[in-house]
Design a protein that fits this description.
Blueprint: H1 2-12, E1 17-21, E2 25-30, E3 34-40, E4 43-46, E5 52-55, H2 57-60, E6 70-73, E7 76-77, E8 80-81, H3 84-98, E9 109-114, H4 120-132, E10 137-142, H5 143-150, E11 161-166, E12 171-177, E13 180-187, H6 191-206, E14 208-209, H7 212-222, E15 235-242, E16 248-254, H8 255-278, H9 282-291, E17 293-296, H10 305-313, E18 317-319, H11 326-336, H12 338-341
Parallel strand pairs: 1-9, 9-10, 11-17, 17-18
Antiparallel strand pairs: 1-2, 2-3, 4-5, 4-6, 7-8, 11-12, 12-13, 14-15, 15-16
């Protein structure tokens, strides 16, 4: 009886963290508390130092607006670490935020979601960053597996489940059975690539230079993968710098133009789904006819993307509940039930 009481007390004070270290957002889950942090993966530091001035939303507001003495950047690119030191500084800042800036005697154990196409060098960089930021032990799990668990798919059953996780830097398409990935396709295309496509389209068509934050706003307001009566005909005002005159300028962009800008990126995602289906064993393919495809990740919220994939594949497609948090919820469930899901962790 004393043992179970002690175990309950330890779980209350546990510092263990489940982290979705994404290109666009970093989400942290604490067992027993749920999601405690959801911030953009952006950090602002003093130039030539690692002194963190801001991280998350406040740092994102600084992007493209900093003087030479401040560097604001996104240390994650395409789902992996682009800047080791800044990632470590950002992680440490977020961990202290979660722990209310108190210095704990017990270093946390962490499980971090990573892209399925990650190399051993990139995986080691994630683990080293987490350890340098204060972790005691670091485990990794591929994002499509975590997303499937978080979306409530029956990954333990001897039946096929298909997940399409459209993140900021990568799109992960996986077929899962018996807590293992049968086939996985990682395409380094996601929400960020959509933003860059809009930037390039506006630059090419209107000679107007806009930032990626403006492009993201355009995508959210009028972006659509498939135009219908609900999405067609929408407009948005866009402000930027005229590349000919060099002065600020305002133009009007339509949903049809944004759809045209996104076509190539969306095609890459659809192709990734098609390749995964072509490589799925026939017995598991028959399961997908009834169960269909589940979509997760922030990018899955693009209007009409689920309908377009359904049209292209002929399978039912639905977006998971809280798609942005499927990965971190899955990582959190693995952390809480490590004995059950230990086979799902990366070696």
């Amino acid at each position: 009886m004393k043992f179970f009481a002690a175990k309950r007390i330890f779980s209350i004070f546990s510092n263990d963290l489940a982290i979705d270290l994404g290109t666009a957002n970093t989400v942290v889950y604490v067992p027993g508390k749920g999601i405690v942090l959801n911030e953009p993966s952006v950090v602002a530091v003093k130039a030539n130092t690692n002194v963190v001035l801001a991280a998350g939303k406040s740092a994102k507001e600084m992007l493209g607006k900093t003087p030479e003495s401040i560097v604001a950047c996104r240390p994650m690119r395409d789902g992996v670490i682009a800047n080791f030191e800044l990632t470590e500084s950002m992680l440490r800042y977020f961990i202290r935020t979660v722990h209310n800036d108190r210095r704990t005697l017990v270093r946390p154990r962490m499980i971090i979601g990573v892209p399925s196409g990650i190399t051993q060098v990139e995986k080691r960089a994630v683990e080293d960053s987490a350890k340098q930021a204060g972790a005691r032990e670091v485990y990794t799990i591929i994002e499509p597996m975590a997303a499937a668990i978080g979306a409530g798919l029956p990954v333990q059953d001897p039946a096929g489940s298909m997940i399409v996780d459209v993140g900021g830097g990568t799109t992960e398409v996986a077929v899962i059975s018996l807590k293992s990935v049968v086939f996985c396709r990682s395409v380094r295309v996601g929400g960020d690539e959509m933003d860059r496509a809009i930037v390039q389209y506006v630059k090419r068509k209107y000679n107007l230079l806009i930032g990626e934050r403006t492009a993201e706003r355009i995508k959210i307001e009028i972006g659509a993968a498939l135009l219908d009566s609900a999405t067609a005909g929408k407009i948005v005002e866009v402000k930027g710098r005229d590349l000919v005159t060099g002065v600020p300028k305002t133009i009007t962009l339509t949903s049809e133009e944004v759809n045209e800008a996104l076509l190539e990126t969306i095609s890459s995602i659809v192709d990734g789904v098609r390749v995964a289906l072509e490589n799925t064993p026939p017995e598991l393919s028959s399961d997908l006819v009834d169960k269909g495809i589940t979509m997760a990740g922030g990018g899955s919220q693009l209007r009409g993307l689920d309908k377009l994939i359904s049209i292209e594949t002929g399978l039912p497609v639905h977006v998971a509940e809280d798609p942005l948090f499927c990965v971190v919820k899955g990582v959190g469930k693995v952390l809480e039930e490590l004995d059950v899901f230990k086979d799902a962790l990366m070696p």
